[in-house]
Amino acid sequence: MLPSSLMPAAPALRAALASALLLAAATTQAQDACPHRGDLDAQFCDANRDLVADTPTDPKRLKDPGTLVFAFTPVEDPAIYEKLFRPFMGHLSQCVGKKVVFFPVQSNAAQIEAMRSGRLHIAAFSPGPVNFAVNLSGAVPFAIRGNDQGPVGMYLKMIVRKDSPYQKLEELKGKRIAHTSPSSNSGNLAPRALFPKIGLTPDTDYKVVYSGKHDQSILGVKTGDYDAAPVASDVLQHMTERGVVKADDFRVLYTSEMFPTDAYAYAHNLAPELQGKIKQCFFDYKVPPEMAKGLGGDRFLPITYQKDWELVRTVAASAGELFTREAFDKAAAGKK
Question: Which residues, 6+ apart, have CB-to-CB distance to 180 below 8 Å?
Answer without folding.
Answer: 186, 187, 188, 210, 211, 212, 213, 214, 216, 217, 231
